[in-house]
Each structure stands twice: as C-alpha cells, then as structure tokens.
Amino acid sequence: MEMKEYYPRICDRVLQNKLNITGAVLIVGAKWCGKTETALQSANSVLYIQESPQHKETAKMMPSLLLEGETPRLIDEWQDAPEVWDAIRHAVDCYGYYAG
C-alpha cells in the first residue's frame, strides 16, 4: 500500500498544546475526517481496538492493561470497548497523567 504524505492541519498544534497540559485528549469529528491520522502524528504508541477481539475482552476484564505503552498512546476506536474510557479517566485522575 502506498503511503500518502501527511499534510499538517491547524488542529495539530491544538492537539500538541492539549497534550502538553492534560493527561488525555479526546478527538471528536465525523467519520473519515482524519482523526486517527492526526492523532498518529503525536502518538508514541498505538492500540487499535478493532484489530483483535481479544482487545475487547481485555477491556472488560482488565482495561488498564490496554493503557500499557509509551505515551502519548493512541487508542483508536475506544468506543468499541467503553471500559477503556473509565480506565483512562482513572489514570488521569489518580496520577495526573495518562499512566502507561
């Protein structure tokens, strides 16, 4: 598959600023508008929830395991495993950052 060049977006700077001052950032937008590609530019590790059914099972039993990885960590399609949301919120509330 041919990799297309990434064209910087206005929101890239906004995302960087948010990552510098908060423990987690939620990127919201329409389908296929570039949310994942934008997030990949700042991520040091990635978890694609839809990549494996095991991710959804892990989210139900021990969602904090899915947070393990270098930060900032992109968790793509987290809404398919909503337990991850609570694990992220807990990590940010308890540690002041997204503990990975």
Give a structural overview:
By secondary structure, this protein is mainly α. The chain has one domain (10-95). 40% of the residues lie in helices and 8% in strands. It has helices at residues 10-21, 35-40, 53-61, 83-95, and strands at residues 45-48, 73-76. Strands 1-2 form a two-stranded parallel ribbon. Helix 3 (53-61) links the parallel strand 1 (45-48) and strand 2. The longest helix has 13 residues, at 83-95. The radius of gyration is 14 Å and the shape is globular.
Number of domains: 1
Radius of gyration: 14 Å
Oligomer: single chain
- Order of helices and strands, N to C? HHEHEH
**Helical run tally:** 4
Pick out the low-confidence regions. none
The average pLDDT value, as a whole number, equals: 92
| Principal-axis shape | globular
Percent helix: 40-55%
Structural class given helices, strands, pairing? Answer: mainly alpha
Task: Jot down its keywords.
100 residues; 4 helices; 40% helix; two-stranded parallel ribbon; mainly alpha
List the helices and strands and how they pair.
Layout: H1 10-21, H2 35-40, E1 45-48, H3 53-61, E2 73-76, H4 83-95
Parallel strand pairs: 1-2
